[in-house]
């Protein structure tokens, strides 16, 4: 291809956007709305997952032992528990450490000095963090079978709730993606049909003069790619502002929950969202124009 | 050998013949055949009128010649291309040797005169320098030298048809096909356009014109091929317009 042909093609692609302003606007609006919905949804799901994950990491099972159990036996039990697959981390807390922690958290240093003996002498325990919260029950059943175990503190509600939330997110994701997909296909095929009627004459003329399929197609494909890129950029900018505003509002309004609601910064979300959105937008634009023109190349 | 391969009879083409149709039939999905057993030979440099009532198959004939349609049966050879067998990828190359003019001009309404004509050269990838030289030259040839910047919508019908002819001529086609080029024009413009086509023909281009304009046909004394219901009913040098309507 000649350099001048290449630039002509590029220029025509850009001009096409302005030649059929209404069609271009419709296409950009379609892609923008689809990708906007997708982006919002993505941001929400990623945050939900993040919140659930943070909460999960906090879920722990605490195991207390009978009075008089030797330190060796406790260490042995700890090693056995650590071997299990549902365990991601196990931590031993001695009676002294437990008391120190309690003093720090609940009593002033000077007040605690009044105690000569450790009032929590029997409070050595293991703190167990799980690799998968849904497996908490199995672990608890196993630990209960160990005779030296006096008591197990478990976060029953949290664990089952989180498992539920997780599968709920999965179902909703699949559902919403399916709906978005159907809507996009419908809207895009509509815009493509409009595009065909706009382009029919022009393509016919080009073919009569002896344009190759490649030459006919190129400007439209460039146009499609540009429209797709614009349709991707607009929702990204909008979501950027909405996201930041929403986070500021929620954390300000519900400061009580700020411990629980750990939102991801927009940069983290955009690391994946920007390339995905552009890939989908440009892909839709490319395919849409490619298919539109293809139907008319058989002249 | 027992196997008799049914081979198509090779079409005999004279050295100076640019268009050869042999027993061509074309049927659309519905209705009677639009062309029924048409045989026609046209030599390089000829000027031929195709006449006939509406629905007699004139446009179908033109569409077959530019390979927009494929015949239902029979053979067509244009400029050495066997149009019943030409590959899809070869069609552009073939069409660049034709110039095509329609009754409704078929210009790109969103581009100016210069761009419409230059378009044909862009398609064949002429260098920009050449395009800048060729477009004004061809525009002055069709009498539109001063209008190269005009919007298509601002031009009269006659002017639009001149732009279309300029576009058809700029790549120096071997054959100019015109389907009712004066169908939308007043008598004065019609005469001017026909004179222009005659000038093109004098330059050596084979010209084929479908027309309803009996007056002009009778005046110009060219070869006239008359169609009626898809059949050639007469084909005469210096023919007269026969009213078949
Ligand atoms: N695309 C088509 N589908 C079906 N019939 C057609 C089509 N085009 C033309 N015809 C029919 O073929 C016949 C010849 O048409 P055409 O070649 O356009 O005639 P003309 O140009 O002489 O008026 C007419 O009867 C017309 O109705
Ligand atoms: Mg016709």
Would you spell out the secondary-structure blueprint of this structure?
The complex is a heterodimer of chains A (299) and B (245).
Chain A: H1 3-19, H2 21-58, E1 60-65, H3 71-83, E2 87-93, H4 95-106, H5 109-112, E3 125-130, H6 136-144, E4 149-153, H7 156-209, H8 213-253, H9 266-294
Helix pairs in contact in A: 1-8, 2-7, 2-8, 2-9, 7-9, 8-9
Chain B: E1 17-26, E2 35-43, E3 47-52, H1 58-65, E4 73-78, E5 81-82, H2 91-95, E6 98-102, H3 113-123, H4 128-141, H5 157-169, E7 175-179, H6 187-202, E8 206-210, H7 214-220, E9 223-228, E10 231-236
Parallel strand pairs in B: 3-8, 3-9, 6-7, 7-8
Antiparallel strand pairs in B: 1-2, 1-4, 4-5, 9-10
Helix pairs in contact in B: 3-4, 3-5, 4-5, 5-6
The complex binds adenosine-5'-diphosphate (ADP) and magnesium ion.
Summary keywords:
heterodimer; A: 299 residues; alpha+beta; Alpha-Beta Plaits; 2 domains; four-stranded antiparallel β-sheet; 9 helices; 4 strands; 73% helix; 8% strand; B: 245 residues; alpha/beta; six-stranded mixed β-sheet; 7 helices; globular; binds adenosine-5'-diphosphate; binds magnesium ion
Overview of the structural elements:
The complex is a heterodimer of chains A (299) and B (245). Chain A has helices at residues 3-19, 21-58, 71-83, 95-106, 109-112, 136-144, 156-209, 213-253, 266-294; strands at residues 60-65, 87-93, 125-130, 149-153. Chain A has 299 residues and is an alpha+beta fold. Chain A has a 4-stranded antiparallel sheet. The longest helix of chain A has 54 residues, at 156-209. The radius of gyration of chain A is 31 Å and the shape is elongated. The two termini of chain A are 23 Å apart. Chain B has a domain at 109-171. With 245 residues, chain B is of the alpha/beta class. Helix content of chain B is 30%, strand content 24%. In chain B, helix 3 crosses helix 4 (128-141), helix 4 crosses helix 5 and helix 5 runs parallel beside helix 6 (187-202). The mean pLDDT of chain B is 92. Chain B starts with 16 loop residues before the first strand and ends in a 9-residue tail after the last strand. At the A-B interface, helix 1 and helix 7 of A face helix 2 and helix 3 of B.
């Amino acid at each position: 291809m000649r350099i001048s042909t290449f630039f002509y093609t590029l220029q025509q692609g850009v001009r096409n956007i302005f030649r059929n302003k209404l069609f271009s606007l419709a296409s950009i609006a379609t892609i923008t709305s689809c990708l906007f919905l997708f982006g919002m949804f993505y941001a929400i799901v990623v945050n939900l997952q993040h919140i659930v994950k943070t909460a999960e990491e906090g879920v722990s099972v605490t195991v207390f032992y009978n009075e008089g159990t030797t330190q060796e036996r406790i260490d042995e039990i700890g090693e056995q528990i650590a071997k299990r697959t549902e365990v991601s981390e196990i931590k031993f807390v001695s009676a002294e450490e437990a008391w120190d922690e309690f003093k720090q958290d609940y009593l002033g240093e000077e007040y605690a000095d009044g105690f000569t003996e450790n009032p929590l002498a029997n409070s050595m325990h293991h703190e167990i963090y799980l690799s998968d919260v849904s497996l908490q029950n199995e672990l608890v059943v196993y630990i209960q079978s160990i005779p030296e175990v006096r008591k197990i503190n478990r976060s029953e509600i949290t664990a089952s709730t989180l498992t539920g939330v997780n599968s709920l997110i999965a179902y909703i994701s699949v559902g919403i993606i399916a709906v978005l997909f159907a809507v996009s296909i419908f809207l895009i095929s509509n815009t493509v049909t409009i595009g065909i009627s706009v382009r029919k004459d022009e393509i016919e003329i080009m073919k009569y003069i002896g344009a190759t399929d490649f030459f006919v197609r190129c400007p439209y494909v460039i146009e499609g790619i540009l429209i797709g890129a614009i349709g991707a950029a607009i929702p990204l900018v909008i979501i950027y502002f909405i996201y930041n505003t929403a986070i500021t509002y929620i954390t300000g309004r519900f400061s009580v929950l700020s411990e629980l609601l750990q939102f991801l910064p927009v940069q983290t979300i955009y690391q994946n969202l920007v390339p995905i959105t552009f890939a989908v937008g440009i892909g839709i634009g490319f395919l849409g124009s490619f298919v539109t023109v293809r139907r008319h190349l058989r002249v | 050998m027992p196997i008799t391969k049914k081979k198509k009879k090779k079409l005999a083409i004279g050295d100076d013949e640019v268009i050869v149709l042999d027993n061509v039939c074309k049927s659309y999905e519905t209705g009677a055949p639009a062309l029924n057993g048409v045989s026609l030979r046209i030599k390089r440099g000829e000027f031929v009128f195709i006449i006939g009532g509406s629905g007699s198959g004139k446009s179908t004939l033109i569409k077959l010649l530019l390979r927009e349609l494929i015949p239902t049966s029979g053979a067509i050879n244009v400029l050495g291309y066997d149009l019943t067998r030409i590959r899809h990828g070869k069609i552009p190359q073939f069409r660049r040797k034709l110039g095509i003019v329609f009754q409704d001009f078929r210009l790109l309404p969103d581009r100016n005169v210069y761009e419409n004509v230059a378009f044909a050269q862009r398609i064949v990838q002429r260098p920009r320098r050449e395009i800048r030289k060729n477009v004004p030259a061809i525009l002055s040839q069709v009498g539109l030298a001063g209008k190269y910047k005009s919007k298509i919508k601002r031009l009269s019908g006659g002017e639009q048809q001149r732009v279309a002819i300029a576009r058809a001529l700029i790549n120096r086609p071997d054959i100019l096909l015109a389907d009712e080029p004066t169908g939308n024009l007043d008598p004065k413009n019609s005469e001017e356009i026909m004179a222009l086509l005659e000038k093109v023909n004098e330059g050596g281009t084979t010209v084929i014109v479908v027309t309803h304009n009996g007056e002009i046909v009778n005046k110009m004394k060219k070869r006239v091929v008359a169609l009626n219901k898809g059949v050639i009913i007469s084909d005469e040098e210096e023919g007269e317009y026969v009213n078949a309507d």
